[in-house]
Write a structure and sequence with these properties.
single chain; 18% strand; D-Maltodextrin-Binding Protein, domain 2; alpha/beta; 11 strands; globular; DctP_fam; binds beta-D-galactopyranuronic acid
Length: 322
């Protein structure tokens, strides 16, 4: 009799569907385990779980979907947090597109200085109104072109190349100004597309060029440094607003601490990745005349400002930080 009752209770427990509570937060990350961003996110999750009543879980490797979809999911609170590059954010939150303008930052230090100060607040406010609260800014170095055909030294070398870009028309325009053909594509599809020749190349930082194996199928990496785009650790505005002040403070502190970790790991990983791709035979070349690439971007700025006249002040605010 006693046994039956226990067995019955166990069966009921086993059959009960898993019900996520308001305390359960699921997070999106595109990078594999061990990548600087992933290690920093693991630290964030561990700290928040230890110090608050929240129960966070982060899913690495983009298993919860593509980046543009995941941004929408966090905005809609279908996922509670995510670690996003600001590049694919522009089509949804126009103010953030300023961060995706080619050569907007003169260096990674310039980007940090701007994002960690008042300029960062401009983007934070715009994002919060659209469903995303950025808790901390992560590093993503600078992005350069790579392809399977030839080293790029002058803009003429880009002519005719089919290049993958992140999902944002600004990047399509950027490549068009250099005479290339850009295809917006999900990060996870790039390796296969390079391998099969659907595209000739793409653009990214060393760590992503390396971690994805793109260097195996597109061995010319040319240092144009044309984009320096920060990344955010974001929480859905709805989930954030549901927290009490004490929990908010703890989550924020954990996010900021994770960004310190991420930036430290990032600097080391850039060098490791560069060494690794070189050792594997990738040909990495300096581009002496980056100004030639920068000058080609004038029409990108012109049409951006024509479409977003109110964002001129944000561009100026960034330039004033330098
Ligand atoms: C990486 C970035 C990812 C993703 C990727 C891409 O550098 O960290 O979030 O945006 O680039 O090119 O899609």
């Amino acid at each position: 009799m006693k046994f039956t009752r226990i067995a019955c209770a166990a069966a009921i427990v086993a059959a009960a569907p898993f019900v996520a509570t308001a305390q359960d937060w699921r997070g999106w990350n595109i990078h594999p385990e061990g990548y600087p961003n992933s290690v920093a996110l693991d630290q964030f999750v561990e700290t928040v779980n230890a110090e608050t009543d929240l129960n966070l879980q982060v899913f690495h490797g983009g298993v919860l979907g593509s980046q543009p979809d995941a941004i929408e999911q966090v905005r809609n609170n279908a996922l509670e947090f995510g670690q996003f590059n600001m590049g694919p954010m522009g089509p949804i939150i126009p103010t953030t597109n300023v961060l995706s303008l080619p050569f907007i930052f003169s260096s990674v230090d310039h980007m940090h200085k701007a994002m960690d100060g008042d300029v960062g607040e401009i983007f934070a406010e715009a994002m919060e109104a659209e469903g995303l609260v950025p808790l901390a800014w992560y590093d993503s170095g600078s992005r350069s072109f790579y392809n399977s055909k030839r080293p790029i030294v002058t803009p003429a070398d880009v002519e005719g190349l089919k290049l993958r870009v992140m999902n944002n028309d600004l990047f399509v325009d950027m490549v068009a100004q250099l005479g290339g053909n850009a295809t917006p594509m999900a990060f996870g599809e790039v390796y296969q597309s390079l391998k099969t020749g659907v595209i000739d190349g793409a653009e990214n930082n060393y760590p992503s060029y390396e971690s994805t194996g793109h260097f195996e199928v597109a061995g010319f990496y040319s240092i144009t440094d044309h984009l320096i785009i920060p990344e955010c650790l974001c929480v859905s505005t709805e989930s954030w607003n549901a927290l009490d002040d004490d929990t908010k403070a703890k989550v924020m502190a954990a996010a900021r601490a994770s960004a310190v970790t991420q930036r430290e790991l990032w600097a080391a990983r850039e060098q490791e990745s560069l060494d690794k791709v070189r050792a594997a035979g990738a040909q990495v070349n300096e581009v002496e005349n980056k100004v030639a690439f920068q000058e080609r971007m004038a029409p990108v700025y012109e049409s951006f400002l024509a479409a977003n006249p109110d964002l001129g002040v944000v561009i100026e605010a960034i330039q004033a930080v330098n």
